[in-house]
Amino acid sequence: MTTADQNKVDTTFDNENNGDETVGAIGVVGDGSASQTLDGNAGAAGVAGTGRPMTEEEMVAEAIRRGEETAEAEIAADAQRAAQERDRLQNELDSVSDKIEAAKQQAAEANDRFLRLQADWDNYRRRTAQERLDERQRATEKLVVGLLPVIDDLERAIEHADNLTDPAAQQFVEG
User: Fold this and answer.
1) Residues 173 and 157: beta-carbon distance below 8 Å
2) CA-to-CA distance for 156 and 167, rounded, in angstroms?
3) What start-end ranges are recorded for coiled-coil regions in this protein (predicted)?
4) How far, in Å, CA of 115 to CA of 19, rounded?
C-alpha cells in the first residue's frame, strides 16, 4: 500500500436516531491536508469562535464526541423503549394473571356446585328409597289392620258352624 493510500481516510458517522444533526465525511486527502464535511454547530468554518480551520485531530475528536453523543442518545432511547416495553409486558402479564385467577376461581365455584348437586342427588335417592319402604310398610300394616276384623269374624263363624246341628247348615259350612 502506498503512502498516498495510507493517508486517505474516509470515516462516516451517522446519527439516525437523534435527528438534529449529522456528522458527514471526515478525511485526509493524499497531500496530507484535512478536509471535512460537517452539518452542525462547528461547521466547515473551523473551530467554533476562533475563525481558524479545524486540524485533523480536532475533526477526529469532534467526530468521536458527536459519535459518543449519538451512541449515548441511542442507548438512552433504547433503554426508554425497553422500559416501556417491559412496563407494557408487565401490565399484560398482570392482566392475564388476573384472568387466570378469575378462571380458577370460577372453576372452583363450578366444582363446588357440582359436588353439592351430586350430594343432593345422592340424598334424594336415599330419601325416596326410604320413603318407598316406609310406604310399603304402612300399606301392609293398614291391610293387616283392615283384615283383622274380617278374620276374627270368620273364625267366630267357623266356631259357630261346628256347633250347628242342622244338616242344611252343615252342608253350607262344608262347602
Assistant:
1) no
2) 19
3) 72-120
4) 66
3-state secondary structure of 153: helix
Residue that the C-alpha cell 459519535 belongs to = 67
* Residue 51 clears pLDDT 80, i.e. is over it: no
Handedness of CA 32, 38, 40, 45 (dihedral sign): positive
State how far the Cα of 32 lies from the Cα of 40, in Å rounded to an integer: 24
Cβ neighbours of residue 82 closer than 8 Å, sequence gap 6 or more: none
Higher pLDDT, 13 or 148: 148
Cell output for 117: 348437586
Task: Give the C-alpha distances (Å, rounded to integers) separating 6 from 56, 58, 106, 141.
Answer: 15, 20, 76, 126
pTM for the structure as a whole:
0.40
pLDDT in tens, 126-170: 999 999 999 999 999 999 999 999 999 988 888 887 777 777 777
Cβ atoms of 38 and 13 within 8 Å: the answer is: no
Per-residue confidence (pLDDT) for residue 47, from 0 to 100: 52
C-alpha cell at position 57: 485531530
Distance CA 121, CA 107 (A): 21
